[in-house]
Amino acid sequence: MVEANGAAPDFTARFPPRAADPDRVEAGRRLFAGEARFVAGAADPTALPPEDLPEIAFAGRSNVGKSTLVNAVTGRRMLARTSNTPGRTRQINFFDIGGRLMLVDLPGYGYADAAKSAVKAWTGLVRHYLRSRAALRRVCLLLDSRHGIKEVDRPLMDMLDAAGVSYQIVLTKIDKAGKAGAAGVGQRVVTELAAHAAAMPEILLTSAAERRGITELQEMLAGFATAPA
Questions:
Q1: Three-state SS at 88
Q2: Per-residue pLDDT for 116 more than 90?
Q3: What range does the domain containing 102 cover?
Q4: Would 4 be classed as within a structural domain?
Q5: Are strands 101-105 and 55-60 parallel, antiparallel or unpaired?
């Protein structure tokens, strides 16, 4: 799509930055300036930790940048382990943020070279977590801004719709997509989300490398945290 003058669509006009609320921005800054620690890694349902805090889960395809985004949001370079090998994360990892919020890094999906037995195990674990976790407040579904929604993402979206678990689309790596490319992908995502009952209508645009959208993501997450002691 091009504008009437033949130019590429304006990225900021189509997806303007959210108006910042100084109080909410400060709440997000304070939350993530505090302690952040790894709590548990669960490779099967019996290893899931107690549901003592509200939980926000990060889900997405392998190599979409989940662990990298968790590190960017928390301001820690090595809190969530990153890997150049897709499909490396094979457990659900829990991170306590200041004793007020739990961030949950789910195993990535869609890695073609993973063994079928491993895929079945990861899928069953994630399905159990998403369907049964009472503390789960929202899922951040990460999509590569260069590709948008792929067929491998749709089963998870349908499952979240059926379970009534609200989810927020977060586009990653927007620094690699280019303004016109990210805008086009973003528009297609927004259009498809209209058919999904559990999807939040707003999408968040992020780049961990350039820290774009990180403040907005912190602000959103802080809204689910328990009140400070």
A1: coil
A2: no
A3: 19-222
A4: no
A5: parallel
